[in-house]
Every structure is written in C-alpha cells, then in structure tokens.
Prior knowledge:
Blueprint: H1 4-27, H2 34-58, H3 67-82, E1 86-88, E2 91-93, H4 95-112, H5 116-140, E3 144-154, H6 159-169, E4 173-182, E5 187-197, H7 203-210, E6 215-220
Antiparallel strand pairs: 1-2, 3-5, 3-6, 4-5
Helix pairs in contact: 1-2, 1-5, 2-3, 2-4, 2-5, 3-4, 4-5
Amino acid sequence: MISDLDIVLRLGLAAILGMAIGFERERQNQPAGLRTHTILAIGCCLAMTISINLSMQYLPTVGGDPSRLAAQVVSGIGFLGAGAILRYGTNVKGLTTATSLWTIAIVGLAVGAGHYFAAIATTILLLCVLVLLNILEKKLIRVYINIKVVVTAQGNTNLVKDLQTALHQVKKHIISTGIERNPISDLTTVTIEVKAIEDESFEDIQGLVTAIPGVTHFKIN
Length: 221
C-alpha cells in the first residue's frame, strides 16, 4: 500500500504542477485559473492513491473491486459541480467552487477508507489554496483583458497606421483591426482590439490618440 508520507508527497507535487498550469491560465484571464487547476490536480492525485490502496486493502476478502465505488463518485460529483458554475456575459463564475466540491467528495472517500492522515493533509492543502492563493492572485498575478479603441478622424487617410504605431509605442498587443470610411464627409473610423492589463490606466493611450492628426473623437472601452 502507498504510505501516508508518500501520499502527502504526491499531493504536494500534484499541487505544484497544477499551480504551474493554473498560473499561466490565470495570466491569460481564462475562467479556470490558478486555484481551479491546483484543486483539480490535488483531487485527482488523491483519487488515484486512494483507488490503489482500496484495491490492495480489500481485494483479498471481497469478491469484487471496491475501487469502482471511487470511480463512480468521481464521475457523479461532476453533476453537482456543474450546478455551481454560472455564466455572466463573457465571464464564467463558480469553477473554483465546482472543483472544491469534487475534491472534497474524494476526501470523504479517503476518510471512509480509513486514510485519515491523507484526508486531513488534503483538506489543509485545499484551505491553503482557497485562502492563501487567493491573496497571492490579487497581489502578484497580472490579469489581461481585451479592450477596444475606437478613433474617428477627418482628412487622415493614414489613420490605421498612425493608430497602430501609437499603440505599439505603449507596448499594447493588437488583436484585430477594423476600418469604416465615409468618403463624403472624409471621416475615417478605426476600431482596434488590444490586450491590456486589468485596472491599468489608459492615460498613455489617450495622450497618443489625441496627438494623431485629424482626430475628432475617440472611445476606449
């Protein structure tokens, strides 16, 4: 059987690997981020170790494979977790809650199998993820969002190039560009979607946009 110390070491490694992937996803402003990936990695690790120990613990005396019960719980808890996931416009909320529900179900399996130490260690890890990593996210991780810069200018046929040059000066990554032109009024409207850091001030963009020749008005959202 897998020892308690070995289980804890595996849980710790799973947490580190989950954090590595979650950190990258968090930087890209994905719905499933740092805490979600870490919790899921911890839960899957615990499920595997407990399934192994269950088969070795009960197989000699029971006519069957007791680890099948763990497999059914792991798949069935997904329905409960799905109920905690909500969508608000383009944002998805509740993924961390869904994964914590899924993981705590496996903690229950561990306690039921008599693996108290592993269950306690997993619970402590979950508390650290939910509390400490939440603080870490807010202080260290830079979340990126997509914003639209809409600029209208009169008599400036190079508006697209001027605007792109201005955005590159402030190190903004351009995702897409659209243009609309009215030949009668000689007005050109350019819409550029860029990637920016959340809560970042747009004063640098405003200053460069207003310096472009012929600009009549602009909007950033």
